[in-house]
Amino acid sequence: MPTSADRRVLAVIPARGGSKGVPAKNLAAVGGVPLVARAVRECRASRLVTDVVVSTDDSGIAAAARGAGAEVVQRPPAIAGDTATSEAAVIHAMDAYEALGGGPVDVVLLVQCTSPFLVREDIDGVAAAVVEKGADSALTVAPFHGFVWREGEQESDVTAPIPAAAGGSGVNHDKAYRPRRQDRPQDFLETGAAYAMDARGFREAGHRFFGRTELVRTDAARVLEVDDPHDLARARALAPLLDADRPGSLPTREDIDAVVLDFDGTQTDDRVLIDSEGRELVAVHRGDGLGIAALRRAELALLILSTEKNPVVAARARKLQVPVLHGIDRKDLALKQWCEEQGIAPERVLYVGNDVNDLPCFGLVGWPVAVAGAHDVVRGAARAVTSTPGGDGAIREIASWILGKELS
Predict the structure, then answer these.
(1) Which UniProt keywords are given for this protein, alphabetically ordered (predicted)?
(2) pLDDT band at 359 (very low <50, low <70, confident <90, very high)
(3) pLDDT in tens, 279-309
(4) Nearest to 307 by CA among 264, 362, 260
(5) Mean pLDDT of the chain
(6) Quick check: 259 and 299 in contact, CB under 8 A?
(7) Cα-Cα end-to-end distance for the chain
(8) pLDDT band with cut points at 50, 70 and 90 for residue 380
(9) For FRET with 214, which of 103, 107, 127, 293 sits at 20 to 30 Å CA-CA?
């Protein structure tokens, strides 16, 4: 029998482009990373997964998947519509992968990129259940302690359900008897995030649950499926908390070639003092100057990019010896042009912002970073969030991340 090291474990991530609940859902950024790229990242970091394929009918998703390190299988229209099953996409991806010389698949995983907080430990958990423990299929579940109710159906002495007018009835409990949590059997909720199947058995059964199905417990706090805009907003709000302890959650010098800084609200506390002659004054933090000097010594390209026209922006840039573009209406266009002129790939850029006018730039770069106290939407779209507010040393904190040391 082949050992786990000999088994070919293919992770398939279905990611069609026709989402209606959230347009372009699989490209929506959570923690500054598109959903499809988040799934690819965790699959590639898995101990047992040998190959990662994204099945899609969308060129934008395909580009993001390749950029994250996955192979791409073009999904035909017949299995790309609203009624197409995930199983059909997985079988097609297996066939295409093997036809292109990938070799026979021993174990196949179905990984849903609409579960943004899926982690590599969960992927390894379902894979190990089949590869190492002999299960036929496996899925991620979370402990569930709630009482489930259903309208219009309840048990009776007759076979037909009682009409809806009869009210609600218990599904996993008798409503006349309410046992304590510790006295009830443990229920589990299917997370919808990751499944593993013996490839041969999956082909024969045609569905993901067959034979002995192993339940792989996951952290209930990470269970979230993005089906509508409210789910996406919740995911973005949770990302700074749930991503904070993950490997690669903070940028290092190896990750970036340039740092681009907004001014108001990131290098200042976003307040303006006005003297009797109408001149505007702002306060900056000396620690940020120290951090910027350290980044310059590390030979990172630097830029201050601001919509603010006040000459104080240029004055501060001169003091810091950093190039500046200010009074810019479309910062994203200016940033894109600057990257082209400098020969820097946008995915190698760290951009620091605090307000909604920074979001277009967040969408361009590989490392969008928000300062503490940034707008809620901006924090949700960021890949990392400082613990220090703007104007209070946030740039120094970012410099310490990048350089891997406290700056003194």
Answers:
(1) Hydrolase, Magnesium, Metal-binding, Nucleotidyltransferase, Transferase
(2) very high
(3) 888 889 999 999 999 999 999 999 999 998 8
(4) 264
(5) 89
(6) no
(7) 58
(8) confident
(9) 103
Alpha helices (runs of H) in 259-364, residue ranges in sequence order? 286-297, 312-320, 331-342, 359-362
Beta pairing partners, 52? 11
DSSP 8-state class, residue 116: T
Which amino acid does the sequence have at 124? D
What whole-number distance in Å separates Cα of residue 151 and Cα of residue 163? 9
- Cα–Cα distances (Å) from 284 to 130, 138, 270, 271, 389, in that order, read 57, 54, 10, 10, 12
DSSP state of 31: T
As a dihedral over the C-alpha atoms of residue 225, residue 229, residue 233, residue 239, rounded to 10 degrees, the angle is 40
Answer whether 204's CB lies under 8 Å from 127's CB.
no
Distance CA 353, CA 359 (A): 8
Query: What is the rounded distance in angstroms from the CA atom of residue 284 to the CA atom of residue 317?
Result: 12
Distance between CA atoms of residues 387 and 394, nearest Å: 8
CA–CA dist 68, 46 (Å, integer): 14
- The SS3 of residue 206 is coil
How remote is the C-alpha of 171 from its chain's centroid? 34
Distances in Å between the alpha carbon of 201 and those of 41, 85, 107, 135? 27, 18, 9, 11
Mean local confidence (pLDDT), 384-405: 93
The radius of gyration of the chain's CA atoms, rounded to the nearest angstrom, is 25
Q: DSSP class of residue 83? A: T
In this structure, the dihedral spanned by the alpha carbons of residues 80, 82, 87 and 92, taken in order and rounded to 10 degrees, is: -10
Q: Token pair of 37, please?
A: 């790229």
- In angstroms, the CA 174 to CA 178 distance is 7
Burial of 380 (0-12, 13-18, 19+ CB in 10 A): buried
Report if pTM > 0.85.
no
Counting other chains too, the contacts that 347-350 makes at CB distance below 8 Å and 24 or more residues apart are: 347/67, 348/255, 348/256, 348/257, 348/258, 349/256, 349/257, 349/258, 349/259, 349/260, 350/251, 350/255, 350/256, 350/258, 350/259, 350/260, 350/398, 350/402
**Contact by Cβ (8 Å): 192, 101:** no
